[in-house]
Amino acid sequence: MCNIEVMCIGSFGRYTRPKCNLILLIILQLGLHTVEGVWPLPQSFTSSTERYPLNPNAFYFGYGRQSAAQQDCSVLDAAFKRYFSLIFPDYTSGYGVLRFSGDKPFTVEIRVDHADCDSYPNENSSERYNLSVSAGQASLNAETVWGALRGLETFSQLVYQDDFGTYFVNKTEIDDFPRFQFRAILLDTSRHYLPVQAILKTLDAMAYSKFNVFHWHIVDDPSFPYQSRTFPDLSSKGAFHPMTHIYTQSDVRRVISHARLWGIRVLPEFDSPGHTQSWGKGQSDLLTPCYRGSTPSGTFGPVNPVLPSTYQFMARLFKEVSSVFPDSYIHLGGDEVDFSCWKSNPDVRAFMQKMGFGGDFTKLEAFYMEKIVNITSALNKTSIVWQDVFDYHERIPKDTVLHIWKGTPASYKEELSRMTKAGMRVLLAAPWYINHIAYGQDWRNYYTVQPLNFSGTEEQKKLVIGGEVCMWGEYVDATNLTPRLWPRASAAAERLWSDEKQTSSVDEAFPRLQDFRCKLVRRGIRAEPLHVGHCKHEYQGV
Amino acid sequence: MCNIEVMCIGSFGRYTRPKCNLILLIILQLGLHTVEGVWPLPQSFTSSTERYPLNPNAFYFGYGRQSAAQQDCSVLDAAFKRYFSLIFPDYTSGYGVLRFSGDKPFTVEIRVDHADCDSYPNENSSERYNLSVSAGQASLNAETVWGALRGLETFSQLVYQDDFGTYFVNKTEIDDFPRFQFRAILLDTSRHYLPVQAILKTLDAMAYSKFNVFHWHIVDDPSFPYQSRTFPDLSSKGAFHPMTHIYTQSDVRRVISHARLWGIRVLPEFDSPGHTQSWGKGQSDLLTPCYRGSTPSGTFGPVNPVLPSTYQFMARLFKEVSSVFPDSYIHLGGDEVDFSCWKSNPDVRAFMQKMGFGGDFTKLEAFYMEKIVNITSALNKTSIVWQDVFDYHERIPKDTVLHIWKGTPASYKEELSRMTKAGMRVLLAAPWYINHIAYGQDWRNYYTVQPLNFSGTEEQKKLVIGGEVCMWGEYVDATNLTPRLWPRASAAAERLWSDEKQTSSVDEAFPRLQDFRCKLVRRGIRAEPLHVGHCKHEYQGV
């Protein structure tokens, strides 16, 4: 019945379905409302048709007496302000203004076990919460402030307006926690520069879908926009423009701080030894000079792995990066290294011989990556590397996380099996290369991914720490980022958060995702439509 | 040499091409600038490296003494204001403010043969212009104000800023005219509602690419947003929402008026007898009741062609539409009629028998379309119909324009050949269904279309009056319209405006289109990137 209701709402006005519209009319006239509209779907969700009007003038967030966090908890105080505006989009005065009302007040009371208000979310942060909505109040309990943030998002999605603009919330009971600990979105700021505002707005939208890691693929071949304190030439010579197309230290702090307030970790990637053409512009002798015969050709290849100066440079760079980015994870790349330049270079060949690598350049690559992993390990960082590294590196430290990006559904399942069998933790990105576009409802492909549907033991499955939606930047910048990302990434978000069995039907997800997409549009996110239809509040910008 | 210059600028900072960058550096240091940056490419273009600084405080548009149009010419006066802002995007005071400057003035002097200032552009409007830029002045000559608008667009694209923000224009001589008379963009406001602002912004961007027809596919199965004076129920019952998702008479006037000021015709489409599900909601007895066996099934098919009331309704509707939309063309649709409902209906079958149509429902369809074409002919409108109509209608009036939308490159060429052989005028849309998206540089497909490369006589080729970029709305609304349309539609714009031989190389077009795309971004149009790279001024919105 519930599904039929939602389906009717979803297709209202699109297809002539007299029976459906009849049911819809009856529902509207009875003043009922389905409250299934939480995306991603909570693990446990019961609600009734009993509903409570909410008056913005008599609506409060508060800390429960037993809560470890109390007033002045930076994360929650900021969240209350944000969510007040998100819950009451029509209300102009804003939260915190002295308000008078004859209505009975409605209070959302938050209680958390740990007052982790000034910390950063990390890989062990609990995001579990319990939300209980009843007459006059909602109780939100969580172990951490990060769990409380997820609960606030859920609460905000429960509130709806009737045709006269009155806000309501139904009696609801929710127990919720994420299926996977690591739910990431990758943005690529090297192939195109993304203004800081575009990144911040993406962080907002990530939180609406309960993503919790921003993987910042900050530099690559085309440009080096990160302004390093230690090596300022990297951006002044390697960025698209040394002033307008860079991320200053202050920009980076702003991104990290904004992300923290949404409970989002910032995972920086400084990919090497390949994908480093832009690095060479500001750091001489870093890249390998390629040879044509016996003379340098004037072009450069991957990072030069044979010079001690390379590792001195990397140690200083990663020391800075480790202090700038508070997360305990760091992404080291390691993918797609082209050996042709290394092969052409006589110094590299001599080094190979000296080290006894023979003609096997994967050994040289492994040698290089091991040095880099050691540098970051010494800085107490856990390394993530692209899956390529596993293939050429036998001695990769066990706490390194492998990032699976290659292959078809059939082949990445094999990789999942193989890598977890070796006891390695893995992250799945391969099926969620969302920069790839196709005509029609390709979100269905992102939704139907089954990250644990590979052959392996229960222990192996536990090694899959999560997944990542990758928005590579070849064809994406601030002009088209948002509609390409949303709501297609939200499909992956539900796969990573929700119970697999409860979310097995893509057709049942469709009207729910349509509904959620309209919520995103209402919040000012240019989320593109899934199919023919409309939102009550269309996007009004141009 | 010129091409090499532009190529280098296009790829600056993207690929390491030391030689290219060296040339670029030399050019920059000499203070030279390539002035090939006009899109679509003018028919005849010569320029030199001699350049003139432009000071916004000493820059004027004026009417030449011999110009038929003089001050208070609505179209040109408005264009001067718009183009002043487009030419000097950094200048905050705006055009028309009293200005003092020590600099020598620069005047753009416009001379037109006809003072068609208060008319609408039509199918015979000349868009030819001549632009001559020399020290202290530019002379822009045109037969009509519409040609002058095209010349102003060209002039605005010639102006550039150096690294210090100074504006320049080079000595230039341009003779220009469009290859095809009809260069259209279709927007579909039925599958999704587009706010008026989104339509107006699209008109702006159309003018930047010299498109001159806005084909407004205003109603269709999913919704009927046009608010009819004669039949207000059509939108109050057939729109997605009767208040928020409609186009009022005032909205329509605003669109037509805005389009006129850019020299753009507005071609309305009221597609029938298929694609009319939404019409049936507000007009009972209009659609054919479908039968299951001997009883009505409750669903409806295409417009009912057997009732006299149908034609009375259509006559009144098209009388209104003809007066609301000033263009002499009207699009009547006629595509994709599903016969199954007609076949099921006993009244329709009886009518078929009475008329002697046998079992051939295309004859019924032809009967219907002929009636509709006669209605609009009597209103002095030229009809455009989708190509389907040609296939089933032998007696289609010779002045009807056929709109080719079906098929592969091979098959639409056959259609072009077949239909022009029958002496019919045609419009080509098939290769430009731009709502279809694919990963990568699909603009190349739009660019390499050769509309006249079909087997036929010179006379036949003359019957191809132009082409149209169609943005069907299944997956498009205001959230993603702009980056899907631009700059991909601009590729088609050059094919429709410019000389085919001069624009035969897609690789030479690439850096020029990249450059033009950055101009669009600078003008606030969210035109998506073509490939890795950057614009000096990135899109700053979120």
UniProtKB/TrEMBL annotation, chains A, B:
It holds the Pfam family Glyco_hydro_20. One of its GO terms (cellular component) is lysosome. It is an enzyme of class 3 (hydrolase). InterPro entries: Beta_hexosaminidase_sua/sub (IPR025705), GH (IPR017853), Glyco_hydro_20_cat (IPR015883), Hex-like_dom2 (IPR029018), HEX_eukaryotic_N (IPR029019). Its EC number is 3.2.1.52. Disulfide bonds join C73-C117, C290-C341, C518-C535. Coiled coil: none annotated. One of its GO terms (biological process) is carbohydrate metabolic process. Residues 180-499 form the Glycoside hydrolase family 20 catalytic domain. Residues 1-37 form the signal peptide. Residues 38-158 form the Beta-hexosaminidase eukaryotic type N-terminal domain. It is found in: Lysosome. GO terms for molecular function: beta-N-acetylhexosaminidase activity. The active site is at E336 (proton donor). It comes from the Eukaryota. It catalyses: beta-D-GalNAc-(1->4)-alpha-L-IdoA-(1->3)-beta-D-GalNAc-4-sulfate-(1->4)-alpha-L-IdoA-(1->3)-D-GalNAc-4-sulfate + H2O = alpha-L-IdoA-(1->3)-beta-D-GalNAc-4-sulfate-(1->4)-alpha-L-IdoA-(1->3)-D-GalNAc-4-sulfate + N-acetyl-D-galactosamine; Hydrolysis of terminal non-reducing N-acetyl-D-hexosamine residues in N-acetyl-beta-D-hexosaminides; N-acetyl-beta-D-6-sulfogalactosaminyl-(1->4)-alpha-L-iduronyl-(1->3)-N-acetyl-D-6-sulfogalactosamine + H2O = alpha-L-iduronyl-(1->3)-N-acetyl-D-6-sulfogalactosamine + N-acetyl-D-6-sulfogalactosamine; N-acetyl-beta-D-galactosaminyl-(1->4)-beta-D-3-sulfogalactosyl-(1->4)-beta-D-glucosyl-(1<->1')-ceramide + H2O = a beta-D-3-sulfogalactosyl-(1->4)-beta-D-glucosyl-(1<->1')-ceramide + N-acetyl-beta-D-galactosamine. Keywords: Disulfide bond, Glycoprotein, Glycosidase, Hydrolase, Lipid metabolism, Lysosome, Signal, Zymogen. Belongs to the glycosyl hydrolase 20 family. Hydrolyzes the non-reducing end N-acetyl-D-hexosamine and/or sulfated N-acetyl-D-hexosamine of glycoconjugates, such as the oligosaccharide moieties from proteins and neutral glycolipids, or from certain mucopolysaccharides. The isozyme S is as active as the isozyme A on the anionic bis-sulfated glycans, the chondroitin-6-sulfate trisaccharide (C6S-3), and the dermatan sulfate pentasaccharide, and the sulfated glycosphingolipid SM2. The isozyme B does not hydrolyze each of these substrates, however hydrolyzes efficiently neutral oligosaccharide. There are 3 beta-hexosaminidase isozymes: isozyme A (hexosaminidase A) is a heterodimer composed of one subunit alpha and one subunit beta (chain A and B); isozyme B (hexosaminidase B) is a homodimer of two beta subunits (two chains A and B); isozyme S (hexosaminidase S) is a homodimer of two alpha subunits. The composition of the dimer (isozyme A versus isozyme S) has a significant effect on the substrate specificity of the alpha subunit active site. PANTHER family: BETA-HEXOSAMINIDASE (PTHR22600), BETA-HEXOSAMINIDASE SUBUNIT ALPHA (PTHR22600:SF39). This is Beta-hexosaminidase. It comes from Perca flavescens.
